[in-house]
Specification:
This protein has 280 residues and is α/β, with parallel strands linked by helices. The protein is built from eleven helices and ten strands.
């Protein structure tokens, strides 16, 4: 059984996690701290949560901080999670981006930049790549960049490998897509090289800023800002607006809203699906 966390320890852990990641752990999250960080106490040979935080603050390498954030961060995801954003991507967003680049006098390969800002273990990134392959057929005719970022380096290592267990692959993938876009590997499934090559992964703490991210046509930032304070949500979404090209689009979680959070987006709708376009 994981060690119990006292109210004082919960306060110490909450403050540290918020500083390190922007994630808010309120007073009801004692069960989460015990279940996620309890095993880390044993692994590190630390007697209690207060000592764990003390050691993390004293660790100049950031190793222990990374392990704490990895343990607390929610990396729950699946392929084609919620489906609607990916239908929107295929039927509206990507065609709109490419149409803007194919007008009279335009030449060269059309460019498409997409950012999965909370990529977790990569399922969202590879779902995007699958949509593009199904829609565009020959990806070599386009300049495509899919960037996946996440605060958890462990999750990104899984994403970069592109290998998933049979159970993970079954969550969201049809049999047709599984057979077409993955190859059997060591009892699981590995994304085909063509689609793996479309993706780049990098560690990123959204609440710490992201000046080097570049410009994008479409940004996915779903189901992560719900763990942030209002001030951090505002800063993150205002920052994402700066990294969208004119007419760029932001996709957030189905239970999320930008109302009262930022003025840099206009809500639009396509076949019943909401999305946010960068304000002119």
């Amino acid at each position: 059984m994981s060690a119990a966390v006292s109210p004082l320890e919960l306060s110490l852990v909450s403050a540290f996690v918020h500083e390190a990641s922007g994630i808010v752990l309120d007073s009801t999250k004692d069960y989460l701290v015990q279940s996620r960080l309890g095993p880390l106490l044993q692994h590190e040979g630390v007697p209690n949560y207060a000592e764990l935080i003390r050691l993390a603050r004293a660790d100049a390498t950031g190793r222990l901080t990374g392990r704490i954030v990895d343990a607390v961060a929610t990396n729950e995801t699946s392929f084609f999670r919620d489906h609607q954003p990916f239908d929107l991507l295929a039927h509206k967003l990507v065609p709109d981006v490419l149409e803007r680049q194919m007008g009279p006098g335009r030449g060269g390969r059309p460019r498409l930049d997409i950012w999965s800002a909370a990529a977790a273990t990569g399922q969202e990134v590879y779902s995007i790549a699958i949509v593009l392959k199904e829609l565009l057929f020959d990806l070599n005719r386009y300049w495509i960049r899919i960037l996946g970022t996440d605060i958890s380096e462990h999750a990104l290592a899984v994403a970069s490998r592109g290998w998933y267990s049979a159970n993970e692959a079954a969550r969201g993938l049809t049999e047709r897509r599984l057979q077409r876009f993955f190859v059997p590997d060591n009892g699981g499934w590995r994304i085909v090289d063509e689609l793996r090559a479309q993706a780049t992964f990098a560690p990123l703490n959204l609440t710490a800023g992201f000046p080097q991210a570049g410009l994008f046509d479409i940004i996915f930032c779903r189901n992560v800002a719900i763990y942030f304070s209002t001030a951090n949500r505002r800063a993150v979404f205002n920052g994402l607006a700066e990294h969208l090209r004119p007419e760029g689009v932001l996709l957030i979680g189905s239970s999320e809203s930008l109302i009262g959070v930022t003025q840099f987006f206009v809500r639009e709708e396509f076949h019943g699906v909401d999305y946010y376009r960068k304000s002119p």
